[in-house]
Structures are given as structure tokens and as C-alpha cells.
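Q: Here's a chain of 216 amino acids. Please give me its 3D structure as C-alpha cells.
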Amino acid sequence: MVSFKASTSKISALSAIEQKHRRRISLNLPINVSTSPRPTTPPPSTPDASSPVPTRKPDEQAAIYKAEKELEYKHRHTFIGTASLNDFLDILEVSPSHMTTKAHIAQAFILLASSEQLHARQTSTSPEGWEFVTRTTHDLVCGPHEDYLNQARIMLGSISLGEFLRMMPFDEEGNVGALSMVEAFCAASHLDAKATAGVGSKAKAFRSWMVRGRDE
């Protein structure tokens, strides 16, 4: 009986020590409590009242289309020499605010005048006299367009560069609205048509005498 009690006491003591050690063991690991986020519903989109989308009626769209096509036809058939207003607008540099400069207008004029002279040389039936013709080339685009000699000698049809530039109201910095250029082109086209008709022109009458025969 004594030995059994001793064994029982020893077992109880060992159990107490084991429980004590178990309490002291800690892994120091963080505890993650995962909570899944709740799905959020985006707020309903509202139309922006500050930028309304313009809508046009079908008849208004048809009228605009017709007006644009008519204007295109007029621009394609308004000429100074061999260059149309459409040609001029195609190569003219215009800002987003529809402004241009004297330099850009001169450059476009020179390019078209150069193409016109090249075409005249290529289709000429006689080489005689071309050696006296002042050449207009693309190189003059980078030249001094303010030079009075260049302004007088560079011609598109019967209109000189200087004459064309004087038709536009440039400001002090050489800027002008593109619409003013269009108006000047139309005015120059009218003058060129009158010069081409040559009504009452002594120079045209003399050329007719030279070509048709001096004996007439």
C-alpha cells in the first residue's frame, strides 16, 4: 500500500510539471482573421450636364453636307493661273485657330508658282526664249520673300507674289486670318481672269501679231 501511494504521488507530481511547461510554450505566431471584403456597387453614372452632345436633325445634316460639297466645288474651280484655291489651302499651314502668317502664304504661293512654271516648260513647243525667263524654283521657299525683286518676279498666273500679299491685312507680327487669305485669293482670281482675257491689252495684241504672222 505504501509503494502504491508513493507511485501515485510521483505520477501526480510529474503531471503537474508537464502542465506547467505546456502553459509556457508559445509560438508567437500572428493570428490572421481573414474577412472577405463586401462587394461594392458603383454609384449610378449621371450624364455630364457641362458637355452636352450636340444632336442634329437629318435635314440639318443634309443641308450641311450640301453646303460643304458646294464650297468644295467652288474652291476647286477658283483659279489663279494653274493653281486652285483648293490647291492653295492644301499646302498652306494654318493654326488650329484658323490663322496663318505672311511667310506661310508666301511659301505656298512660291510652291504653286514653281509647279506652274515647270509645267509650262515641260509642255512648251519651242525652246526659244526660255533662257530669258526668270526661274521660279522650290529653293525660293526658304529665300527672302520680303525682297521686292522676288515679290515682283515670282508670279502665279498674272498675279505677282507682292500683289497677292498686299491684298491681305497682316498685323504687326505678320499674322492674318485664313478667311482673309481666301478672300484675297478670290479677288486675285478675278484679276487674273481679266488679265487672261486681255481685253484692250496692247501686249496681247502684240503677241498675237508675233504668232500669227508679221505680214498680217
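Q: Can you summarize the key feature?
A: The beta strands are 79-80, 83-84, 99-101, 155-156, 159-160, 175-177.
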